[in-house]
Amino acid sequence: MDRDYHVHSTYSDGRFLFQMVRAAAEAGLSGVGIADHCNVSDREAISEQKHLLGFNLDQTYERRRAAIQRLREEHDVAIYDGVEMDYHPDEEAAIREFLETADFQYSIGSVHYLDGVNVHVEPYFAEQSERDREAAVEKYFDHLVALIESELFDVAAHVDLVERNPELRGFATEEHYRRVAEALTDSRTIPELNAGRALDEYGEFHPGPAFLDVLAEHDVDLTVGTDSHKPEEIGERVSHVERYLAARGIEPVTLSL
Q1: Which residues are CB-contacts of 3 (< 8 A; sequence separation ≥ 6)?
Q2: Domains of the chain and any CATH numbers
Q3: Average pLDDT, integer, range 43-64
Q4: Which residues pair with residue 139 across a beta bridge?
């Protein structure tokens, strides 16, 4: 693993930029991508959560870009100016306009919300029937395929994110994986091997092993991202990713930046 394209800073829900960059350098990486969360939705529920969480990169990206440039002058490690955008099919026009205006070096697309609720919220989905939870997972993959087909993004993040939620885990099928793989074969978008929950209670990378098998059948390339929010996570996850890549025989691709 030579580059990590998925690291967060205080411009969303991570730690100070200089701490994240220093940790990437100490981990032996030649490049680190700062891909803070961003949302341009005008849906009331999403906008309220965005402001409560302080995810305002759509307003602060120029300030962050200036900070990144100063850090580039101080470090040998390459620092990439990226973004992780929340995606919803109804908001493609707004996302496209923002990405064209902001002109990041690369963009990551993520499906985090279903009907205005973050997929991590266990109590919300725990109250649903099994049929409703199955439908939620179906909608998740519908949106993921639409994300890929939109051609808005360079990278698709944690493509089976629903598996992190115990209430939604196990509803994804091989058919879902094949739909995603087929969409990826016709798209410029590259999925990532994401280590965001590989070392904690979930204990798996995204995509999981069965999903990775389907992607391999379709010759889909992957890039890599630790999805680190704290500096100490980077080195720990980098070494874990490297072992996993070797065990699976995966050679991650480098983004053209």
Answers
A1: 29, 30, 31, 32, 33, 78, 224, 254, 255
A2: 3-248 (3.20.20.140)
A3: 84
A4: none
